[in-house]
Q: What sequence folds into this?
């Protein structure tokens, strides 16, 4: 599925708050998510073995938990601003692009990286 | 603190009636003394053949308010602006002022809500002593007081505001013009009642002038007249002056006048200053700062006057404009403009300042200013001095202007120029007196602060009218600038590692024993 | 109870009531969720209470002397350090940051440069008409949230400007029209009323909408039948009418405008639209307000303008500010730096991963009060007091109005403010 990604501020999905008051589990649960409109969510065709999604933009990819959100228009997926979201954001002509990013969505059984592993993967990628 | 003796200089100290006398100046613990109590550690400057005068004071400048930041933003990538104004940074401003002999500066227009920023910036403006004037002419909590000139209530509130903002005095600036502009109306008559308020602009001029005296503030009320640089401004000027004159107020003991007119050059756009000159010659209770124009490559226009901004827009000013409505207290604008020697109106502005300086008889009613950075750069002062003192310099300069312009200038050929002494008065003594600071600034009397300039010139030996270059050179390359006995400039070397002070006052408010007035005002403020 | 300003976001609400004994905060009244979370940071489990340093890949507690020494060593070795953040620090700390950058030939910038600073930058080609909160409270009758989810980024803003009864808006909410332009139905839509207008614009179609508005503002033609970015012709007409006829309208510019592709062009077009409408208005005003998030983002712009005459992309060399075409983005992208000082922000989480990878590949000195992804990558971590709670200072609200922050309680032992810490680093550098 091809869809447009917007990273957004969500008061209940706030990485700084989760770091202060949550734990690794809640961080992953609350931030490593992508919100879809009902129709788009249904079209993902999730199943028991493939309940996560891999989202890929021109800048990178990340494994996330898909969720439904009411009143989201079809064709737009929202992610709360976080270290997961920024695996998909990038730079065009010296400008940081956080919104209106074309992404590809596939279902997957792969695991979602937790916060620590996400940090490690950033370092590891660089060293490669 | 350094103890300093300046020996054998030719002293000009008009306040103390010293007019070119060879005299030593002694400074101990920052103040001028007639003898040292302790003879150790005294630095000595041999000022033989040189002139010793008090340091200069700029009574109307824009350096540390938010508006100036918007000018800095507009100019940050503009090569000409950077070259002329060096980014207009606080440090460069201080360097420029010190280099030209100044030790005290007044920030002329600060909105109460933005005062904290000015205080913060003041702390990063090295060396100079400074104070700010609070723009209180658009304050809604004073609606009733503007209407009924209720002095006690107004004084209690404004004294508290002065204390909280650490301000020095009041600025009147186009009362409630921002509210008029909400209806896209430019006010044509200062006696028009407001649409949303039950008083007029003249009532505000009156209320604040009275309140200033009621509080016995050191400086008189400092007024900008609406519509400067336009015909409307010229009309408004006389309306306000006559109105304030009719109030028949007495001055407080600290100073001689009750009303200060800002950048007086900017109102008589037809070049005819005769009415203004006569008014000032007949009314000693008024003073003015002049607003000399410098014809710089580019000038900022940092203002709160809607009419001038509109007129610039309508004449196709190519520069960007930043404007903001500030917390129910008025509007601010920042843009750029270029003064042009081929432009009649610009030349008239230039001539007006000189005309007023030469023709107002009591030099204690005038103070030199350049409306920094709007009209000129402080480094233009030496040339400005030559225009005031040397008829030849004046005439040569006018000759550079184009024919049509030259002919409109009404500067009289026969008006005597200023003497050197009078130049010292308008740049040093008169501002100190106007600010109520004459005990400590603008003079070299006992107990005055040791703020001194030493110039490499002898006015008794040099014909300043003919030898303008010598005069200009002596002011451009001041040998020593001293502040509180500390040498802050010695030839080319400038030392900015000294803190200046912030002058502020709460005046003498009447009692408010039960706190009734402030409680009432807090209730009004909480609704705004 | 004491009255205090909150540093949860750039609204800097100054009507928060706090009771405390100087050591702990007992009660907080009036703060929103973000504000409350800010106050809760004092005792959060994520709080950094000791200096930390990486040794053999492991982060461990060290003394202040060791941590400062390591900081100085890293800075001395560095030829091109980056200094970034500062939007969660007081103005005093921002000045110290600039002084430090000058000392170490550093490149310094704040979060503003990638956020509301873009609108300020637009002043090189467009006029800026701004306004401040009291003006909005007392006069505004049309409020437009453009790409701005106020409810979740500056929660009490709508409280203050939409629901308030100002001097000339005594009828309050009922007299005000709220217009939200956003591709997504955000929480801010929850306050919509009968007179209000929602425009679900397709992502990336804002420029088209603005161009149509500009066109039809000046002419009397009918807007053509075509849909623009999924918007109804009637909705566009209503928007235009509201803009032209408002007595005082304010457009809040959010991340939807500053963070998408072609944001510079979009901002320019929007500012031109405002000029066009202003000329057309028979009465009234139209202004913008920039909705930056961090509590002192506007502060860095203001103080750097006063002190340096410029506000972004500040490159120092041999004690002077020099011309630079670089931005914080290009510096990191080109890896044109050899060390970074990150203060009060979490770029490893908040920058695109291309930049966070590169940032993490060089030594990081982290100054802050909470652990973040950046602190976990840092070589040395210097904890500081929370500004606005454990230390005071000056800050600037989103509308560039200065607010004095107070110290309410003491910081944890041995912790000083950002300003004091930066000053200490400068002094140590001068000593050596």
A:
């Amino acid at each position: 599925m091809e869809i447009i990604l917007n990273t957004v501020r969500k008061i209940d999905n706030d990485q700084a708050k989760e770091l202060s008051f949550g734990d690794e589990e809640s961080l992953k649960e609350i931030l490593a998510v992508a919100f879809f409109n009902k129709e788009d969510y249904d079209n993902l065709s999730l199943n028991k073995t493939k309940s996560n999604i891999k989202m890929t933009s021109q800048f990178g990819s990340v494994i996330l938990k898909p969720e439904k959100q009411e009143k989201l228009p079809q064709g737009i997926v929202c992610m709360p601003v976080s270290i997961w979201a920024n695996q998909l954001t990038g730079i065009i002509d010296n400008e940081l692009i956080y919104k209106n990013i074309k992404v590809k969505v596939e279902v997957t059984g792969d695991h979602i990286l937790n916060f620590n592993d996400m940090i490690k993967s950033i370092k590891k990628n660089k060293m490669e | 603190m350094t103890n300093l003796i300046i020996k054998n200089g030719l002293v000009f100290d008009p306040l103390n009636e010293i007019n070119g006398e060879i005299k030593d100046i002694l400074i101990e613990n920052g103040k001028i003394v007639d003898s040292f109590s302790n003879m150790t550690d005294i630095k000595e400057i041999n000022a033989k053949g040189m002139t010793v005068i008090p340091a200069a004071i700029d009574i109307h400048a824009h350096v540390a308010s938010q508006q100036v930041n918007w000018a800095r933003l507009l100019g940050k990538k503009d090569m000409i602006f950077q070259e002329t104004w060096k980014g207009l940074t606080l440090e460069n401003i201080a360097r420029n002022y010190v280099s030209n002999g100044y030790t005290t500066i007044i920030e002329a227009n600060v909105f109460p809500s933005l005062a904290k920023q000015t205080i913060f910036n003041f702390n990063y403006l090295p060396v100079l002593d400074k104070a700010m004037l609070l723009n209180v002419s658009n304050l809604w909590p004073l609606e009733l007081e503007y209407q009924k000139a209720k002095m006690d209530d107004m004084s209690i509130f404004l004294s508290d505001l002065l204390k909280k903002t650490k301000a020095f005095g009041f600025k009147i600036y186009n009362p409630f013009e921002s509210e008029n502009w909400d209806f896209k109306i430019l006010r044509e008559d200062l006696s028009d009642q407001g649409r949303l308020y039950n008083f007029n602009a003249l009532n505000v001029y009156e209320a604040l002038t009275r309140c200033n005296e009621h509080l016995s503030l050191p400086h008189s009320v400092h007024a900008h007249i609406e519509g400067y640089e336009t015909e409307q401004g010229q009309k408004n000027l006389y309306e306000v002056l006559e109105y304030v004159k009719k109030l028949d107020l007495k001055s407080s003991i600290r100073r001689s006048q009750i009303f200060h007119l800002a950048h007086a050059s900017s109102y008589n756009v037809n070049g005819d200053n005769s009415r203004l000159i006569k008014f000032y010659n007949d009314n000693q209770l008024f003073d003015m700062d002049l607003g000399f124009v410098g014809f710089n490559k580019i000038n900022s226009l940092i203002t709160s006057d809607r009419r001038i901004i509109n007129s610039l827009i309508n004449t196709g000013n190519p520069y960007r404009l930043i404007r903001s409505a500030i917390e129910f207290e008025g509007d601010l604008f920042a843009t750029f403009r270029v003064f042009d020697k081929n432009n009649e109106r610009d030349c008239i502005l230039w001539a007006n300042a000189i005309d007023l300086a030469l023709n107002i008889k009591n030099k204690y009613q005038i103070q030199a200013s350049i409306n920094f950075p709007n009209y000129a750069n402080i480094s233009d002062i030496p040339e400005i001095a030559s225009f005031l003192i040397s008829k030849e310099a004046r005439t040569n300069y006018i000759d550079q202007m184009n024919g049509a312009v030259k002919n409109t200038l009404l500067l009289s050929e026969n008006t005597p120029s200023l003497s050197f002494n009078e130049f010292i008065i308008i740049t040093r003594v008169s501002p100190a007196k106007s600010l109520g600071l004459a005990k400590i600034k603008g003079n070299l009397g006992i107990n005055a602060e040791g703020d001194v300039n030493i110039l490499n010139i002898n006015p008794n030996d040099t014909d300043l009218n003919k030898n303008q270059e010598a005069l200009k050179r002596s002011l451009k390359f001041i040998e020593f600038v001293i502040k509180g006995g500390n040498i802050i400039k010695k030839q080319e070397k400038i030392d900015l590692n000294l803190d200046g002070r912030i002058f502020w006052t709460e005046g003498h408010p009447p009692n408010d024993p039960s706190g009734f007035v402030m409680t009432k005002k807090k209730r009004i403020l909480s609704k705004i | 109870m004491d009255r205090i300003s909150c540093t949860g976001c750039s609204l800097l609400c100054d009507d928060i009531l706090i009771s405390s004994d100087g050591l702990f905060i007992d009660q907080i009244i009036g703060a929103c969720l973000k504000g409350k979370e800010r106050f809760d940071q004092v005792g959060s489990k994520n709080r950094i209470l000791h200096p930390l340093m990486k040794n053999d890949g492991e982060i461990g507690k060290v003394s202040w002397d060791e941590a400062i020494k390591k900081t100085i060593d890293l800075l001395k070795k560095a030829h091109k350090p980056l200094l970034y953040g500062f939007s969660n620090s007081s103005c005093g700390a921002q000045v110290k940051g600039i002084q430090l950058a000058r000392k170490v030939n550093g490149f310094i910038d704040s979060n503003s440069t990638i956020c509301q600073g873009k609108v300020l930058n637009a002043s090189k080609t467009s006029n800026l008409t701004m306004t401040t909160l009291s003006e909005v409270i007392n006069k505004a009758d049309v409020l437009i949230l453009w790409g701005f989810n106020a409810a979740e980024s500056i929660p009490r803003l709508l409280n203050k400007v939409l629901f308030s009864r100002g001097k000339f808006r005594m009828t309050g909410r009922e007299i005000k029209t709220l217009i939200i332009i956003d591709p997504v139905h955000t929480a801010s839509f929850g306050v919509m009323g009968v007179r209000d207008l929602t425009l679900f614009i397709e992502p990336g179609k804002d420029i088209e909408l603005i161009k149509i508005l500009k066109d039809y503002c000046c002419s009397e033609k009918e807007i053509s039948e075509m849909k623009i970015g999924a918007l109804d012709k009637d909705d566009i007409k209503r928007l235009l009418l509201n803009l032209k006829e408002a007595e005082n309208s304010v457009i809040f510019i959010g991340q939807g405008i500053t963070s998408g592709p072609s944001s510079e062009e979009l901002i320019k077009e929007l500012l031109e639209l405002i000029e066009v409408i202003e000329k057309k208005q028979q009465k009234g005003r139209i202004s913008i307000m920039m909705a930056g998030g961090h509590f002192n983002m506007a502060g860095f712009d203001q103080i750097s303008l006063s002190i340096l005459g410029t506000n972004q992309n500040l490159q120092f060399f041999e004690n002077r500010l020099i011309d630079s075409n670089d931005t914080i983005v290009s510096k990191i992208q080109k890896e044109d730096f050899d060390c970074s000082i990150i203060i009060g922000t979490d770029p490893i989480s908040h920058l695109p991963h291309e930049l966070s990878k590169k940032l993490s590949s060089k030594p990081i000195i982290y100054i802050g009060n909470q652990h973040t992804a950046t602190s976990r990558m840092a070589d040395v971590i210097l904890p500081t007091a929370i500004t606005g709670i454990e230390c005071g200072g000056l800050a600037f609200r989103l509308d560039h109005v200065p607010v004095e922050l107070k110290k309410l309680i003491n910081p944890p032992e041995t912790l000083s403010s950002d300003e004091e810490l930066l000053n200490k680093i400068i002094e140590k550098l001068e000593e050596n």
Notes: The two ends of chain B are 48 Å apart (CA to CA). The domain at 56-389+421-434 of chain B is CATH 3.20.20.140 (TIM Barrel). Chains B and A do not touch (no CB pair under 8 Å). The CA atoms of residues 50 and 110 of chain B lie 39 Å apart.
